[in-house]
Amino acid sequence: MSEIEGCVDAYRAYLSFRPNTMQKVCEETAERLYEHMVNVVSTILGLEDHRAVISRLVRKLHRGFAKGESYDVIANILLYFVALYHDIGKAELHYQLYAHRKLGRPVIPHNLASVAYLVYSSTRGDWYTKWLQLFVERFGFDPGIAKDLFMAATTAIALHHEYFDYVDGGLSLIDVITPMTIAYAKNVDLSLVLHFHKTVSDVLNEAWKNIEKLSVLSQIKEYVADLLYTPKNNIEIEASEALEYVSTLHYELGGWVFATEGIEVSRGTLPTALSLAEVLTWALAIADNRVAQARGSGGSWFSTIVSQYYGV
Questions:
Q1: Which of the four pLDDT bands, split at 50, 70 and 90, describes residue 308?
Q2: Number of domains in the chain
Q3: What is each CA distance from 219 to 165, 214, 247, in whole angstroms?
Q4: Contacts of 74 (CB under 8 A, 6+ apart)
Q5: HSE (side-chain half, CA atoms, 13 Å) at 131
Q6: pLDDT of 147-192, one tens digit each?
């Protein structure tokens, strides 16, 4: 990753997409990844109708809010979280080599690489502890519900470019979700090791420096600062670990649908958690699409369909 390390401001080298023409690594013309993060956070926090639905779903999950905070605050925290991390997978070495035209294609879809980053951050160190402290100690959620919130947010990040319809069936790209079938469907080598250079911290810090100035963040700024995971060292994680987590999400959140066929459901909150994941996915797809259109791109197929469905 010598090109990125050679830049004075490392975050400027991380592109948010592959330009149509050759770009110099430190050139200022293409959208930077940190800029995309800021733009999507700003856009998603303006989706008031979706926030209202998310707020009601969180209220339903919580069944009575003991500490007097508005459920809109929780909704905005979740919207902020999915927007900030939805494309962090583009900071992965292989994607940046692709964006800078050193590779012909991405070796893993960036949404799945984003999940890999979150899996790493939640299983190494104390970052996930901060998530639990926020929702359990600060807001009074049951630890199991706090886990549901994390799973719903991670599901939205995993699916913001592709949607598995658990409720109605028929739209899933593959019928049986396992690490192997996902790898086969997405042409991913399960032995692939994903690499995030430590300068990903520069990307996130620069994004946060701009995000914290947004007026729409004022309501939640004090809560979300600790949810910024900025590693001090390089990250390596196998693609199989991320795909394992995605398949787990499928069975944790999607399995309840099959209860009528004799499969036992562990907890009654799963249908609500699934609905929450669904709305977060839609909101993220719409915000991402609006930002892509603003820079002159048509956005992804999925986000375009979602936007057309909602008439936005």
A1: low
A2: 1
A3: 33, 10, 34
A4: 55, 58, 135, 139, 149
A5: 24
A6: 889 989 998 998 887 654 444 444 344 445 667 777 777 788 989 9
Question: Residue 248: what pLDDT?
Answer: 77
- The range of the structural domain enclosing residue 207 comes to 25-310
Is 94 within 8 Å of 69 (Cβ atoms)? no
* 196 three-class SS: strand
Residue 134 DSSP class: I
* Tokens 């508005």, located at residue: 70
CATH number at residue 210: 1.10.3210.30
Confirm whether 11 is domain-assigned: no
**Which candidate, 39, 32, 38, 73, places its Cα nearest to that of 54?**
73
Six-digit token string for 72: 């809109």
Tell me the whole-structure pTM to 2 decimals: 0.85
Q: Say how many C-beta atoms besides its own lie within 10 A of residue 214's C-beta.
A: 14
Which residue is it, tokens 């900025």? Answer: 230
The residue written with tokens 């499969």 in the block is 263
Contact 269, 61 (CB under 8 A): yes
Report H helices in the chain.
Answer: 2-5, 33-44, 48-62, 71-85, 93-99, 110-123, 127-132, 143-159, 179-186, 200-211, 221-224, 239-254, 270-294, 301-310
Q: Which two three-digit tokens encode residue 89?
A: 């997978």
Domain presence at residue 10: no
- Domain assignment present for residue 19? The answer is no
How far apart are alpha carbons 94 and 166 in whole angstroms? 31
Q: Are 302 and 288 in contact (CB under 8 A)?
A: no
Residues 199-203 have a mean pLDDT of 95
What DSSP designation does 192 have? P
Residue 203 CB neighbours (<10 A):
25
Q: Give the Cα separation of 64 and 181 in Å (integer).
A: 40
Whether 179 and 229 have beta carbons less than 8 Å apart is answered as no
CA atoms within a 13 Å half-sphere pointing along the CA-CB vector of 265: 14
